[in-house]
Amino acid sequence: MSIVMLGLCAAMTWSGLPGPEWDLVYSQSAATWDEALPLGNGLMGALVWGDGSPLRISLDRTDLWDLRPVEAFERPEYNWKTMQQWEREKRYKELIALYEDPYNEPAPTKIPAGRIELSIPGHPAFQESRLRLAEGIAETRFAGDAMVRVAVLADRPAGWIEAKGCVPEVAVIAPAFGGKPGKADRAISAGDLSLLGYPAPETREGPNSRGFVQEGWGGFRFAVAVVWRQDGDAWRAAWSIATSDEHQDPFALAMERAGALLTPAIADTALASHKAWWEAWWNRVSVEVPDARIQKQWYLETAKFGAAARPDTPPISLQGPWTADDGKLPPWKGDYHHDLNTQLSYWPAYSGNRMDGALGYVSWLWNNRGNALEWTKRFFDLPGLNVPMTTDIRLRQIGGWRQYTHSATTGAWLAHHFYLHWQFSRDRQFLETMAWPWIRDCAVFLEAVSAEKDARGKRSLPLSSSPEIHDNKPRAWFPVMTNYDNALIRWNFRTAAELAREVGQPDEAARWEQALAEMPDLALDEDGGLAVAEGHPLTESHRHFSHLMAIHPLGLIDPVLGGPEARHIVDQSLARLDRLGSSQWCGYSFSWLANM
């Protein structure tokens, strides 16, 4: 262990702020929102793109949601026992209609906040866009020394714009919500925003301001306000987004926040505070590796994490604070996927010495656990805690592929982050008031849902899956417990026993040690690597390494501490991935493999 740590320390040097050579730089203008320069502070986000005719700033706020309920999930047949019965009876059309079709409805969904467009007079040629990582500022330069700089302020709900060498024309574009309610037709992008059926926005315009108020579902409203002024040779603007959850007049609040930043002293203080926040962010840890491409990727991803995660804002959803700006509903509703996406988003927090970002994640889970507890009781009719795999911002089930959205082990996947937070922080209060209760409640549920014993006297699950092997086909439910479910249940029982002893409850520890002893062994394939399930080796390239959870992140199989047998399992598991190739991998697949 000491050799490993010494090697890690040798690879780390103190370099402070990233130099300009690590900035994200475009010599051609970004043509779409998903190529833009990303800015954010966890609550508000902005995407800077375009060539100046116009320069676009796509806006977002992470708590803008259409939270209408999923009516299908109020039906009496929506429950675990009926799901099992229908699977046995092969009533697949009815299963899809109840569990998956609701996800194709326009809502519930994350919603975008609109766009600022800056048109540069004379249409000077675009020269360069640069995300200055050290400062968290996006800078776009044009011919003739015209320049626009944009920031989402790190520590207040507002954005800042400065133009030099030009006086931009300002337009504020509301999302294209106005229209009649309708049906969506596919799950990735569920159609036009107009399908939500909102009224057209109320536009607001003054001599030096633009904005709008948008009414959403259930009386929810949000407002965007942009204000500007000329200061000598510099043109400055500010924007903010406010909601009816904050104030009965969200436009007035947005105007107040943005307007304050036009006062030179306040603006200077706010910008200095913003730059100081980013300097402190970079000075928490520095990593240096010999491969320049990996080094740059580390800087870019660290900057992105700093823009997306805070201790007191909503956690990172599928698009984080950068909801799609294309007139469509967000891809996959911009929701929270808990079979990989939220979890991997926070892996940089722990060894990266950025625990406050991860605290926002686990605090959100904790603060919304009441909805998960209610769902666990209503759907499973079992004690304890589980969590839907796809959720809205309140941790409520919103549907999708049933084998994963209604998995029995999602709560345990999330429990791992409570454990990581305890391990890295050693915060005793967090352990006793959040980590131990969450992990224990998950163990109670897992004990109940796996109570039926198989022919060998081992715990079993009536329905078991491995995200996202076989997609949503009927065979995505395996006839035996998958290694994904097995590893998560094993880890949760083991960790519940560990934490029970840590908090001085030996009887609880004995209970979970006994439950762990009743679990089946992890299934191996013919080469001695981890299979998907017993008799089901991985046979094709797949983006999700769910069958390898026992290796990483759960660490149940440790190639260093586990001896030759563990080393063989790891080697053979990775060798199979190599043989099958990366044709079906996503970006996160490579990151996950790198960790293993």
What does this structure look like?
- With 596 residues, this protein is an alpha+beta fold.
- It folds into three domains: 25-65 and 108-278, Beta-galactosidase, Chain A, domain 5; 335-521, Glycosyltransferase; 523-596, no CATH class.
- It contains 17 helices and 18 strands.
- The strands form four sheets. The chain has a nine-stranded antiparallel beta sheet with strand order 1-8-9-10-11-16-15-14-13, with helices on one face.
- Helix 9 crosses helix 12.
- It starts with a helix and ends with a helix.
Count of individual beta strands: 18
Main beta sheet, described?
Answer: 9 strands, antiparallel
On the 0 to 100 scale, the average pLDDT is: 95
- The span between the termini is 17 Å
The CATH superfamily of the largest domain bears the name putative glycoside hydrolase family protein from bacillus halodurans
Helix content class: 25-40%
Overall outline: globular
Enter the CATH topology name of the largest domain.
Beta-galactosidase, Chain A, domain 5
Number of contiguous helices: 17
What low-confidence regions span 5 or more consecutive residues with pLDDT below 50?
A: 1-14
- Can you identify the CATH class of the largest domain? Mainly Beta
What can be said about this structure in brief?
This protein has 596 residues and is α+β, with helices and mostly antiparallel strands. The protein is built from 17 helices and 18 strands. The protein has a 9-stranded antiparallel β-sheet, with helices on one face.
